[in-house]
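Lab notebook, bench 4. Still working through the backlog of constructs that have no structural model yet. Next entry is a single chain of 446 residues. Request: give me the structure tokens for it.
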Amino acid sequence: MQSTDRLSDAGADLGNCIGPAHASPAVIVVIRPKRTYGCAVKNTQGSLEDVTRRLEIIQAISDQVLVHLEADEFLDSLLERVREVMNVDTAVVLLLDRRERILVATAAKGIEEEVSQAAHVPVGQGFAGRVAAERRPVLIPDATSADLFNPLLVQRGLRSLLGVPLIGRGKLVGVMHVGTLTRRVFTEEETEVLQHAAAHAALAVQSLLSRAERAGALELQRSLVPSALPDVHGVEWTARYRPGTASLGGDWYDVFPLPSGEFGIVMGDVAGHGFAAAVVMGRMRSALRAYALESTDPAEVLHKLNRKMQHFEPDATATVLYAVCDPSWEQIRLSSAGHCPPVLALPGSPAAPVAVKPDVLIGLGEEVPRQSTTVKLPPGALLCFYTDGLVERRSSSIDSDIDRLCEAVYAGPPEEVSAAVMAALIGRQPTADDVALLVMRRTTTA
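Model written out:
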């Protein structure tokens, strides 16, 4: 492997070549851009105009992306333009899978089988992997004997390659690379054009994927909460869910009948945001329902749920409140895994938090003891369950916000109470975190 300083006089510092010491004598150039911004154009006015034209073509499609296209459509359109303005045979985008630390071929022009065959490259290995690891452009003037991880590049007869990282808001998003079937020395101006395209692609992909992830998480979340609460004699209830403005979390509530004739009530909040949190929430919801069929003791159900999550989802944590109501609705048994206490309002009395011990969160402490608390529900009693998005504000303490919640809760019709609660604690101000609210009231002694 040999190094070269061929580009160093034109504004790029070249480091040592990449690849193992025993590799064949292919030339791989790592381009370290200097701090000067823009194209290092020292040629004729025609060269400057050519670069400007190329950048304008890339800019034109980027300006329309967020309104009209999905991520895959945008990348296909962008790569078509990149292939055109750079006069190359192939153009590829690989996006980073952060969990697996691999680059996955997502869009390609001229070498579409990279996508259809699900080509992937570990970060740090091969051509694209090194671009991602080093976070700077890499040029391979002669790829025939270079250390390439993806055999497709060799099979298609590519001779020269140029790759740049996709970095958006300081985070690595993926890699974009172009290739030619004939030997070619990519210029600094061409490197700048590809970097410009990559910068636009990174920001657009981040925005589009964030939008798609939010929509997917919201759809999943809504599919996992009851579409309607059970119509049961002796109790009336209502529920509300409001997504956060920052990103969706793993908040959920659930109400279901048990074989014993009792009813299970769940209010939970998985740590984290986005689609991943929604998926964990779905798994946790299903597991809790299964354990609820085996035991009517809320503490035992949460104990089993905790063991399951620690074994199969070791990185997940959640607060969960699980309650079991008697068929007569005269009492309710509760167990809390670090969740906010429900608020109880009795007719003629001010509302107050239920004195239930907040045991350790789900996902922490496998053999920690858990306990259940029994609460009497006389006719007209009302319980308010909620997630912390309702009572956590940066401008105030959670205790003071729980006090405000208690002031808003009263032993009245659940729909009116939930409206009063949302008005008092949310109002017109958007909340960064999700808010889930479930209000139930015992109506008769039967």
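Notes after review: Residues 8-215 form a domain with the Beta-Lactamase fold (CATH 3.30.450.40). DSSP finds ten helices and 19 strands in the chain. Flag for follow-up if needed.
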